Amino acid sequence: MKKRVVVIDANALISFVTDRNKTQQDKIVNLFENAAQLKLLVLCPQNVLSEFVYVLEKVYSVSKPLIRQMISDFIAMPGIEIVNEIDFKILLSYWPDKIQDYGDAIVASVGKSRKGAMVVTFDRKFARALKKVGIALFAL
After folding, report:
1. Which of 23, 53, 99, 128 could form a disulfide with 94 if both were Cys (CB 3.0 to 4.6 A apart)?
2. What are the backbone angles phi and psi of residue 120, rounded to the nearest 5°?
3. Which of 77, 82, 125 is nearest to 101 (CA)?
4. Taking 70 as the threshold, does the pLDDT of residue 1 lie above it?
5. Which pLDDT tens digit goes with each residue over 87-125?
6. Residue 136 CB contacts under 8 Å (≥ 6 apart), including other chains
């Protein structure tokens, strides 16, 4: 059986470390438990980490050393892979006409470039755009 591959976006990662939405947090915890058991592979585009840092620092006033530790713990988790390469042809075919947010378009392009990958997001607008471009959402 082939391992499922999911691409996580920033809002899902933020839901993991904050209490802003307990239901979302529980779903993401379950996702990461499955990754830790190597039942699935979670891809995290590098820009998601940049957005994660920005939101935690500017919106939640989390200290930089604590954010650094969160990132260190996250990237050390089994079943997590940080993606640094972007297929710009795919990215620019989505942004800005089909997916208006550049960061979301990066997540979508990673999802598209990895055959069979699904995207994890709680962003309804992004989810609708993903459906329109034929990228599956991972059901949490």
Report:
1. 99
2. -105, 115
3. 125
4. no
5. 999 999 999 999 999 999 999 999 999 988 999 999 999
6. 118, 119, 130
d(CA 65, CA 72): 10
CB atoms within 10 A of CB 118: 17
40 CB-near residues (< 8 Å, 6+ apart): 3, 4, 5, 6, 31, 34, 79
pTM of structure? 0.94
By percentage, how much of the chain surpasses pLDDT 70? 99
Q: Which CATH number fits domain 4-132: 3.40.50.2300, 3.40.50.1010, 1.10.3720.10, 1.10.760.10?
A: 3.40.50.1010
Q: Other C-beta atoms within 10 Å of 51: how many?
A: 20
Measure the CA–CA gap between 58 and 79, rounded to whole angstroms. Answer: 29
